[in-house]
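dumping this here before i forget
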Amino acid sequence: MSILFIILGLLLLVFGGDWLLKAAIGLSLKLNIPKVVIGMTVVSFATSAPELIVSVKSALNGATGLAIGNVIGSNIANIGLVLGITTILSSISVEKSFYKTDWPVMMIASVLLYFFIVDDLIIQTYEGVILLTVLIVFLVYLLRFQKQTVAEEVSENDDVSTYKVIFFLVIGGLGLWGGSELLINGATTLAKDVGVSDAVIGVTVVSVGTSIPELAASIIAVLKKEKAISLGNLIGSNIFNILAVLGITAIITPVEVKSDAMSLIDNDIYWMLGISLVVLPLVFIPKRMQLGKRDGVTLLLAYITFVYLTIM
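structure:
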């Protein structure tokens, strides 16, 4: 039954996130919000909504290992799994904003998370405020100094009627709520049944599930031969996961790493830092400012190794 709950929960999260994204884009276009604002705020928030909902509800339910594990696992999956598969299917050209802005901010966010939890094993409310403040500063910088959007292009063809916006908003919200309920209940029950911590379930099953929207978007972009997904988008998603998802969660309730979730500190967070760090040299070697099939295989093998070591 717990497996069924997980599958149904993941399906609802995927469809709910997609519906919410359509509503957000439609609403933004109707309000004449610039595309860069849509990309770095509305779109980023909508695609990270599954992580946010799961993390907040997990923390409120006492499964804080699931909340942190979900974010750390999603960040590893975004680069190792999603970027790996995408670059295996098609090479990706990298924009200069990657090494000038996106990657440095992602590493700053990752290092902040590391120092916030490595000593006292808890993300305090004030630390959540710091994370969210860094995100706001980052967004203000993008809007003021970075003219080219690093997010997915949104065309006027994406405009939808007001009724559809409201419809997608309602069913998207309900889908995320119902999916998070089923996924958390299924994941925590499964963790107890198989004798592993909710943190392990968080960095494997749950994190992959909440990264499915990014994976689906990447594969669809490759099949359509469109530049609808880029390295900057995935890096931006990782930034949002740490600064917004964990920031908001910690503001609502402090997020503690419990004794049965110490693998997050002893192992998983180092994988997140490592796989985030290795993207930089891969962008320049062997072909400058491009990620190809060889890089994709490297990232995917790293992710498979991480999952294997985690569940063993």
